[in-house]
Every structure is written in C-alpha cells, then in structure tokens.
User: Fold these one by one.
Assistant:
Number 1:
Amino acid sequence: MKRGQLQVLESLLSLFFVLISVVLALKFYCITVEGLDIEKYELKYALLSSIMELDEMGILSDLLSRLDLSELHSIVCLLLGEEYEVRIVVLDEDGHAFSIGSCSRPEIELAYLTIAEDSSIYEVRVFARRIER
Amino acid sequence: MSSELDFISAFSIMLLALMVVVSTISLQLSHTNSILTKAREEYLAIRIIEELCSYMSFSSSINVGLVHRVHLYRISMSKLLELKLMGYKRLLKMLDVPENYRVKIVIEELFNPSNRLIELGDVDENNAASTFRLVSMNGEPYIVRVYVEEADGRL
C-alpha cells in the first residue's frame, strides 16, 4: 500500500471515529435533557397544585393581603426542599413589585394570579433552580 | 521500510482514536444508565403519589387553561387512619410497587414539618427521587411526600 493511500485511510477512519463520538455525545445530551425535563415538569405541577391548594384554603390570600412574603417564601422552600434556591415576586394591581429570595438562571418559572382578602388582584411569580444534588 | 513505518504510525493513531471512542462510549453509557435510573424512580414516585392521593382523597380537579388539569386533594381522617392500619407491605402491594424499589411515604404538617403523621419505609431522602403534594385535611394543610430509590440502581 502506498504512503498516500495510507494517509487517506488513516484520515477517513479517524474522521469516522470522531463522527461516532459526536453522534453519541449528542444522543447522550438529548437523553440528559429529556431526563431532567421530567423532574422539572413534575415539580412545576406539584408547585402549582400546592399554590392552588393554599389559595383554596385561604392561606395564600391571607399572606398576600398582609404582604407576608417571607412566610410564603419559607413555605415554597419547604415544599421544594433545601436543594432549591427560590425567588418570589409579587405584583399588585397598581404595578408595584415585591420580591424575596434570589435565584439566578431559574429552571422553574410559575405565574399565578389570585384575588386576596382585601379584593386586590395579585400576581405571584415563583422562580426556582436546583443548586446541587 | 518507510511504508511499514507509515502503516505502524497509522495503525497507532487509529488504535488511539478507538481507545478514546470506547472510553467515551463507556462513560456515556454509565451516565445514561444513571439518568435512566433516575427517570424510572421519578416516574414511579409520580405514579405512587397520584394513586395514593387519589386513594385517600375525595376531592376534584380544576381546569387550568385548555388542556391542563390540576388536582386538589381533600383527605379525610378516616382514610388516613385506614392507611396507618394498612401497613407498609400491604400498601406497597396495593400501589403495585415493583420489588426492586424502596419507597418511603411521609405525611407531615406544613407549618410544623417535624411533626410527621405517617412515615412508612426506609429510604435515604437525599439520594432518592422525590415528589410532593399539598393536601388539605380537616382544613389544615399537610404535605404528602414520596421518596423512591431503585435497589442497587445507583452508580
């Protein structure tokens, strides 16, 4: 076999192996993203159902009319667990925003509209992100 | 002689590339296996909590938007007592939990999480897949938590 032919064969095979690696890496990435989405979707659902339950029981309305965000923040933190950082933003009908907690690059975002005991309309936005597991 | 050296050089490079690919594949497979295990655990946790809450609850669902439906759970004390009396093994059988999974079911007070009404099963809460639902019992809020861990599933 000539030297030129060998070099071509070598390059082609190396390229082939590299392509396989890239395809497998992409497949792995897709599985990872899909796997994580299950958890995020479920957490979002669980959080939404919890906030609705709190609203049904009158607890959310009571907290919002008193603007007791720290209590609301501690409830959400308790529900999600210690491994989540949580930020809650409450917007009233006059456009005032109240915020508690910090969350950079949130993975879960939830918006919930409700009427408090004082008949004011509030929008509660929850941002959460897993710190580490 | 020169062509033999070229052949050896090309063969060495290909062997090296093959080793890199094989190690990458094995690494990816192990990660994929770990992710799939976690996904299986999460799926089971969701199924268990939905069945458990539906079993204990007499509540309805609320439609959100066009397609989403969120369930709110009202749990009666008699159902809770029934659950307590049922026992762990019978409960797992009722929920049709596969034998190779360990499950922990906890019902705790929202405003006093250290007070647990029910704590069935033994699972490491930090490593297991978990989910929760807020439920109402006699007008008081409680959290139902389910932890699932696949036996020998974690890498």
Number 2:
Amino acid sequence: MKQKINSVIKAFLLFNLFAVVNTFGSEPQKAENFKLKDYNGKEFQLSDFKSSKATVIMFVATQCPVSNAYNERMAKLFADYKDKGITFLGINSNKQEDINEIKEHAKTNKLDFLILKDPNNIIADKFQASFTPEIYVLNGNLDVLYHGRIDDNRRESDVKEKDLRSALDEILAGKKVSSPETKAFGCTIKRVN
Amino acid sequence: MPQRYSFVILFLIISCITVFSQSNEKITVNTIDKAKLYKLIKERKGKILFLNVWATWCIPCREEFPAIVKLADDYKNVEFVGISADFPDEVESKIIPFLRSVKVNYKNFVSGFSGDEELINTLDEKWNGALPATFIYDLNGNKQTVLAGIHSYDEFKIQIQKILK
C-alpha cells in the first residue's frame, strides 16, 4: 500500500515537473516541419512556405477574449505584410474548438489568412506554445527569429510597442530582430490532456 | 409555546442578518505595482505567501478559484493573495462581481504594472505568462514553488504542506 502511495506521489511530482518545464522552460530555437489541414480540409506543410521572407505562426483561438481582442490587428497585419513576402499561418490547438467553429469565426472576423487545425495539440506541444495569441516568426530554415506577443497591450488604444510589426520590418530590412523574445498574458491553450 | 416561537423568530432574524451582511461584505481591490509587490513578498510576518495570478477572462483561472477559497479557509497560517491581470478600470465591472460570486475570503489586487511583461518578469523571468500561475514563498519571502496552469485543492495542499514543514 505504502509503495503504491509512493509511486502515486512520484507520478504526481513528475507530472508537475513537466508542467513547470513546459511553461517555464526554454523555447525551441528551431521549428520542425509539420503537416496540418485548414478548416476546408486542405493539407499544408510548413515547408510549402520555405521561399517566404518569413512565416508568422499565430496560435489563435475562437473563444479566448484576448485572442479575439487581436482579431482586427491580426487581419491588419496580414493585409499589410502579405504582399511583402511574409506568410501568415494561424494555428488553432484548442481541443474544444472544431473546424466548423474556426471557419465561422474566421469569416465573421475577416481573418483571411490560412488557419490550420492542430488536432491533439501536437504542434502546440512541439513549439511549446502555451497561450493564445502566441506568435513565432520563422525564416526559410525554420529558425525562430521572433517569439512572443503581437504588441504590448490587449487594448489597442493603449499600445506603445508594436513588437511583431517591428520584428517583421527588421526582417524585411535584412536586420537582426532587436527584441526576439517578448511576453504577454493570454488564454491557456486547452490541451487534450 | 409563545416562548418557543419567539426563539424561532429570533433565530430567523439572526440568520437573515448574517446572510445579508455576508453578501454585502465590502470587497476592495487595489492596484499593485512593483514596489508594493516586493514589499508584500518580503513582509511575511510569520506566514508563508500563496500568490495566485489570474484574470476574469481566463477560464482555467475561474475554475481554479474555489479550490483556493477553500484553502484560505483551511490554512489560516498562510497568507493568500490574488493578483488579477485584468485592467484597473475593470475592478467594479468585472473583478469584484466575480470575486463576490466565488465568495472570496482573501485579498486581491489588480495589476498596476506598466505592462504584462513587467509583472511576469517581476514574478519569474522564466515564466512565459500563461495563466493561472501560482507562486509560493517561504517565511523569508523566498520563492519556493511555481505552479503553472490549473491545480486542484489537493495539489496545492501538497505544495503548501511541503513549505510549512
């Protein structure tokens, strides 16, 4: 009995350790190629966009008030940078948000960039993405050039630092991203486990 | 017989007053900045600190709240404090109504930091800001535990007891 209790405690501690590492650990410096389907069932892979000057991966949600507060800003970013050789990929990893909901949400909010469904949050796990909206900007070699927030305020009227825009401008100018890592609060991605 | 009735009536009046006063108990939520947070962490006065960061828009934070309310009832030798990541102008419209709905029994602040990143880095440079998050400090104000994501009463209890030992 005592042994059983000990193994339960050990398993619990191990689980907690994993949770801490996942949210407090270092982020990957290089992404791996992946394949996902969009809400119309069409499959895409990250390597399809290799020739882009940069690929912006945005972990998004349909029900998160923070992600929704950024809908207009995401749509504007896409409109402003799509013709400059930047690819935008939304990824929805939330277990409770299905493709029909994602499709409807994108239509209502005029999110015209590709939005891919990440069943079982496998890609979110690979990126160690934990909240929405969380951004990763990659180059053609899949190196992570920028990771973090879209800007520094959930309220657009109070924004001081447009971090993602600044990073993209620096990348387009052939410069090194000066603030490659930023932080903000967001909604935790609802994972399958 | 009439004496028994008056006893029942008196009991009902006292119950009503108690319920009324509980539901109308004033909840205040002040802003907290970096200096106030450091002071809070360092001024332990014989109690360890259980610090939970949450927001009204964060569903797992809301789900986790009742467990912390129960812990605050059970551990009088622990100081429980919440910091809401909502905006200071949402105290009356969002924060207090939520705190009232969960019958909060511990002090809560709203972030008055200059931005999310300042609060995140003040609490832990390695934390990426995913909510909820809980930090437990020992009697000397040293951080002993960081718990990311939603946790249950029993999971919190294990961590508290480890530090109380």
